[in-house]
Amino acid sequence: MGKNGSGKSTLTKVLVGHPAYEVTSGSATFKGEALFEMEPEERARSGLFLSFQSPIEVPGVSNTDFLRMMCNERRKARGEEELDPLEFYGYLTPKLEALNMDPSFLTRNVNEGFSGGEKKRNEILQLAVMESEMSILDEIDSGLDVDALRDVAKAVNLLRQGDKGLLLITHYQRLLDAIHPNFVHIMQKGQIVQTGGVEIATQLEEGGFASLAQ
Known about the structure:
Domain ABC transporter: 1-139
Number of helices: 8
GO cellular component, one term: chloroplast
Keywords: ATP-binding, Nucleotide-binding
Helix content: 40-55%
Protein name: ABC(ATP-binding) family transporter (Fe-S assembly/SufBCD system)
CATH architecture: 3-Layer(aba) Sandwich
CATH superfamily: P-loop containing nucleotide triphosphate hydrolases
GO molecular function, one term: ATP hydrolysis activity
Structural class: alpha/beta
Largest sheet: 3 strands, parallel
Distance between the termini: 17 Å
């Protein structure tokens, strides 16, 4: 959590290897590997996932083809057999049900004509397909109505089971009421300035960032 412009989204993009950013110092390790020495696609194949704050549209690419390509790239990286279209549909169906998504999503192009809430659901569907070990969700609650937030939170809670890591970026207590964090970190000017439990988010909701400085 942190004010707008504090560096939260910048951190996420650096971790996944966004080409607009250059790392000039420091290091990051993921599963024992030096993250900054890996290409963005290598980071994704190894199990690092970022749900973007503003997902882009990809005209001309069907959601089904995109999801199956993601899935098979991840499976190949783990030494598993690729799924053909029929096998993939069987793999995908329970994930659609868990997210309460209409199967018609699969026939549409990636995010093309999607509402803000539909784009966020689609991002979580991508996460479910990738089965990533570390997921970064950048304001996944943005643009969601109450029902959509409940469905997305339910899916995220299912996906975080086991030893999988989850980093949430949010401004709102309502998301943390549905997805209970182990820790809350406050970022300011690119630095983590405070860490604690969910009570920090409650204090922030009641008194704003000024209340945390005391």
